[in-house]
């Protein structure tokens, strides 16, 4: 009788140490955003938050991929026009992990110019557990320039003027003129870049032309497709700007 009374508490203690169900994982660590650095606009990758070269208003954000040990299956993106307070942020989209663009997201959701947009992201694991918010990034879109000439094929030019229009309400400090070579569907090469800051021209001027001379044009190969765009600059280049839509062209050297 004494033996039975003595063993019952022991059995109870052993039972308390035995798991009653499957252990669950903890939420992933908060992701980390890619902060834009000085000079990023003059590189091919253009890392960090930035305007996106599209016809509609667009902002692209970037973050660092979480380690595989975190078990992340997707990232959720939140946006606000007020930097303070989680209650002011709303969910605007998500990006599945392990796809070709799992560390970038392009916001196309009714963006306005001259408006600050703040972003953070969270990571979600297989069990649906969501991390705490990442650090915050923000951007303010300016009106876009519009590429004019050239578009399409140009025949044996001695020089070539790239003409673009700037909205009258943009008032940029300067611009970046960029040309890329298209190499297949997923690759590109930065072949020419010019930055003018401060902007040369009269107050209220809306049409500009950047001219490449014949020697400069020799970088272009015969009948190869290139694309060009104009980025407008104003104020803090880390948080303000716009990118025009792309215009494509090629040169027929008559070879």
TrEMBL record:
Domain of life, per the record? Answer: Bacteria
InterPro entries to which the protein is assigned, alphabetical: FN3_dom, FN3_sf, Ig-like_fold
Q: This chain belongs to which protein, by name? A: Fibronectin type III domain-containing protein
What organism is this sequence from? Caldithrix abyssi
